[in-house]
Amino acid sequence: LLGGKLSAEVDAKDFGSLTMREQIAQVISCDILIGVHGAAMTHVIFMRKGRGVIEVSTEPARLRRSVQAGNIFYGLAGWVGVQHRSLSGRTSGGFMSFDIERVVAFAEELFKLQDKR
C-alpha cells in the first residue's frame, strides 16, 4: 500500500522472524525506518547519520524536551543524527491503524532532507 503512494522501494519486515544480525543489516541499509513504538525501534541507533525514522504510537511524544518514556526514540534518533517523526495510531483487535497519507508526507519530507545533505 505505501509503495504505491510513494516513489520509493518499500520492504516490510517482521523483525521477530529475523536474527539480530539480519535485523541490524536491514536497519543499516534503509533510508527511512517506519515502525510501531516498541523495543524494536531501539534499532534506530544502527541507522546511518542523516536518515529518517517514522514512529507510530498510540501516544506520540508531544513534549520533545521533556524526559519521558514516550520520547526515548526521539532522543536516540537525535543522538545518532537521524531525523525523527511521529504520528498517532489506534489499536483494535491487535492491529495498529494510522493515517497512511501522513506517513507518505513524512517520508517525502525525510527524503528531501536526505537529498540536501
Write up this protein:
With 117 residues, the protein is an alpha/beta fold. 33% of the residues lie in helices and 21% in strands. It contains four helices and four strands. It has a four-stranded mixed beta sheet with strand order 1-2-3-4. Strand 3 and strand 4 form a beta hairpin. The radius of gyration is 14 Å and the shape is globular. The mean pLDDT is 84.
Spell out the blueprint of helices and strands:
Elements: H1 2-5, H2 20-29, E1 32-36, E2 52-57, H3 72-79, E3 83-92, E4 95-98, H4 100-116
Parallel strand pairs: 1-2, 2-3
Antiparallel strand pairs: 3-4
Number of strands: 4
The secondary-structure class comes to alpha/beta
Q: What's the order of the H and E elements?
A: HHEEHEEH
Bin the strand percentage.
15-25%
Rounded to the nearest angstrom, the radius of gyration is: 14 Å
How far the N terminus sits from the C terminus, by CA atoms, comes to 28 Å
Which sheet architecture does the biggest sheet show? 4 strands, mixed
| Contiguous helical run count | 4
Q: What is the general shape?
A: globular
Report low-confidence residues grouped into runs of 5 or more. none
Helix share of residues?
Answer: 25-40%
Strand adjacency order, main sheet: 1-2-3-4
The overall average pLDDT, rounded, is 84
Quaternary structure of the protein: single chain
